[in-house]
Amino acid sequence: MGKQNIKYSEEFTSFLVILGGISSRALDLFRQNLEGRSIRSIRYLRNNNEDHLTNPELCFENVARFKRLIDTIGYDGPIAAMTDNTKLKERLRYSPILGCIIGSTLSKEETIINVYSDIPSTINKIKEENAIAKDVRAYMLCVKCQFASDAADIPLPKFPPVIVALIPNKGSDSANDITQLHKKLLQEIAPQLGLHILSLGSNGAIVEFRAQQNILNSSNTERLSIYNSTLNINFSCPIFESIGPIIPVQGPKHAKKTARNAIMSGARLLTFGNSSVRYDQLLEQVNRHDSVMYKNDVIKLDQQDDSAAYRTFCSANLKQLVSHNYQLKPEDKGLFVYLFIMGQYEFRKMVGGRHAYF
C-alpha cells in the first residue's frame, strides 16, 4: 500500500513540526522507524498557512491575524501581552516564506534575496557587520479567563499564546527598546483593532522589568488609583485610550526563580529584623540526609531550573527548618519567613485580593 495521501491528525502533525524544528535528523529517524510527514511536507503546510508570519517585526498585519483568530471564536474580552528573550542557535539560512536571509540582526529589507547571486554578498555583509543574532525576542498575545478572580494571570484554557513578532538580537536589548515595542502595540496597533490589552507580562529580567516600569509611569495617560490606608494598599496604573488599564505582571515560575536567585547571588543581604537569608543556610539544608532539595539545586546551580525553584519554596523544605517539636532556630527565622512568604505569594490558587494584601 502506498503512503501517498495519508491523513495525519492535527495533534500528530504538531508533534512532527516540533520534532523537525528541534532536529531534522531526529524527524528522519522517527519516520524511518514509524511514519509521519517529511520536512518537505511540513514546509508545504507552512507555505499554505495564511496565518504564518510574513514579517518578523511587531507590525499591524501580525496583530491583525490574532484579531481575526479571536473573532472566529467570538471573544471580546481581556488580552495579555508578553515578551521574552531566548537563546538562538547562531546560523544563517534562506527563508522561502520571508524571501530573505534569516538569523541576523539586520532588517528584512537589508537581507532580501531577489536572485541567487544575492545570497553570498548578503551573507558576507552580515559577517562583516558582525550581525549574526545570538538571541530572539518573542512577542506574544493570549486571551484571558474573564471569570477568574485573578484574571490578569490565567489564560483561557486550551488557547495557546500566539506569537506576533520574532525579533533577532544579540542579547543586548535595552529597557528603552522593549518599551518602544510595548508603546507601539498599546498606542498604535491595539486601538485600531479594538484589542483590550489588560496586562504586560515578562520573566522578570531587569531590562524587561524596567520597560514595564516605564509603561507604568507613563505621564501622558489617565490613571486608575486605589488607596486604602487601613490595608496599606497604594495601587496605581495607567489607562490607555481605547484600551483601558494596563497592569505589569511577572510569570509565577519566573518569579519563583527570581526569589530563589536573590538568595544565591550575594549581591544584597536579605535581612528580616535581626535575622537574614543567606546562601550557607540553603547549603546546610541540601547537605541534610533527608533534604528534599538536590545537590545541584544549590551547588553549581542552574538559575533557570523551574523544578529547583519549586523544591526551594515547597512546604516540605519549609517543614525541615523546624524541629520535631515545632521549634525554629533563631538564625533560621529570616529564611523561614522568606520561604513562606514567597512560596505563598506564588501560589497559583491564591485569589487576587490576597495577592494585593501580600
Could you explain the architecture of this structure?
It is a single chain. The protein is an alpha+beta fold. It has 3 domains: 10-47; 60-88 and 134-250, no CATH class; 253-345, no CATH class. Helix content is 39%, strand content 19%. It contains 13 helices and 12 strands. The chain has helices at 10-22, 24-33, 39-47, 60-72, 118-128, 175-193, 206-216, 252-265, 279-286, 306-313, 315-319, 333-345, 352-357, and strands spanning 78-87, 93-95, 100-102, 135-143, 162-169, 196-202, 222-228, 233-240, 244-245, 247-250, 270-272, 275-277. A 5-stranded mixed sheet has the order 5-4-1-6-10. Strands 7-8-9 form a 3-stranded antiparallel sheet, with no helix packed on it. The protein has a two-stranded antiparallel ribbon with strand order 2-3. Helix 1 packs across helix 2. The longest helix is centred in the middle third of the chain and has 19 residues, at 175-193. Mean pLDDT is 82; it is low at 147-154.
Key words describing this protein structure:
358 residues; alpha+beta; 3 domains; five-stranded mixed β-sheet; three-stranded antiparallel β-sheet; 13 helices; 12 strands; globular
Poorly predicted runs: 147-154
Q: DSSP strand (E) fraction?
A: 15-25%
Please identify the oligomeric state: single chain
Helix percentage range: 25-40%
Structural class category: alpha+beta
| Biggest pleated sheet | 5 strands, mixed
Number of helices: 13
Radius of gyration: 24 Å
How many domains? The number is 3
Termini separation (Å)? 65 Å
Taken from the alpha-carbon principal axes, the silhouette is: globular
Going across the biggest sheet, name each strand in turn. Answer: 5-4-1-6-10
> How many β-strand runs?
12
